[in-house]
């Protein structure tokens, strides 16, 4: 059972990201502020919700949240600053774009870079504990999946329609056969290792 809030009295925004471990594509993050009466029986950590139910929840969250925002940081920036910093940057962008200024942040995970001196709480597996983080996980996941489906149309051999950029066997084999695209994260060392032949004497 998800907890509705971490505390009472302060405006609370839940934050989560999607796509941190992918070989390709951006990392997405969402920030969500929920009203007191928010409830949906399907709401949970996005990884525990079917794709069909995630779409139902996406619509419900967008229609019933007090405020929500989704942001992304692309693979070029991920390679430049590293994936952890990129994840925090995406969260900061999402928080900054909220129409209501939160007074406290709930962050899924164990680390965060403070945003504008707002108090924040890092909660391990928070997307399975607090409704606002779960809602953020749903939005980050659905928005990112939709983005990767669009990219799939241009690069079908990598099977992003199914793997959404994660390093599945099909995806790894395609990288080995066809190389990388402008959307791959080169800092993830995904290029196949070249066979080094010993030099003859």
TrEMBL record:
Belongs to the RNase HII family. Its cofactor is Mn(2+); Mg(2+). SUPFAM superfamilies: Ribonuclease H-like (SSF53098). PANTHER family: RIBONUCLEASE H2 SUBUNIT A (PTHR10954), RIBONUCLEASE HII (PTHR10954:SF18). A divalent metal cation binds at residues 16-17, 108. GO terms for molecular function: manganese ion binding; RNA binding; RNA-DNA hybrid ribonuclease activity. It is found in: Cytoplasm. This is Ribonuclease HII. It comes from Limnovirga soli. It is an enzyme of class 3 (hydrolase). It catalyses: Endonucleolytic cleavage to 5'-phosphomonoester. Its EC number is 3.1.26.4.
């Amino acid at each position: 059972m998800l907890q509705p809030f971490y505390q009472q009295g302060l405006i609370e925004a839940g934050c989560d990201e999607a796509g941190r471990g992918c070989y390709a594509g951006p990392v997405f993050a969402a920030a969500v502020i929920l009203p007191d009466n928010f409830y949906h029986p399907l709401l949970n950590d996005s990884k525990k919700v079917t794709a069909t139910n995630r779409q139902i929840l996406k619509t419900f969250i967008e229609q019933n949240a007090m405020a929500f925002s989704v942001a992304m940081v692309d693979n070029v920036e991920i390679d430049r600053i590293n994936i952890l910093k990129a994840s925090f940057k995406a969260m900061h962008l999402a928080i900054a774009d909220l129409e209501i200024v939160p007074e406290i942040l709930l962050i899924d995970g164990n680390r965060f870079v403070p945003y504008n001196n707002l108090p924040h709480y890092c909660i391990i597996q928070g997307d399975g504990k607090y409704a606002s983080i779960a809602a953020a996980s749903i939005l980050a996941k659905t928005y990112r999946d939709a983005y990767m489906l669009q990219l799939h149309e241009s690069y079908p051999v990598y099977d992003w329609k199914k793997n959404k950029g994660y390093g599945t066997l099909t995806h790894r084999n395609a990288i080995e056969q066809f190389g990388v695209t402008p959307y791959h994260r080169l800092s993830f060392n995904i290029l196949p290792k070249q066979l080094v032949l010993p030099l003859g004497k």
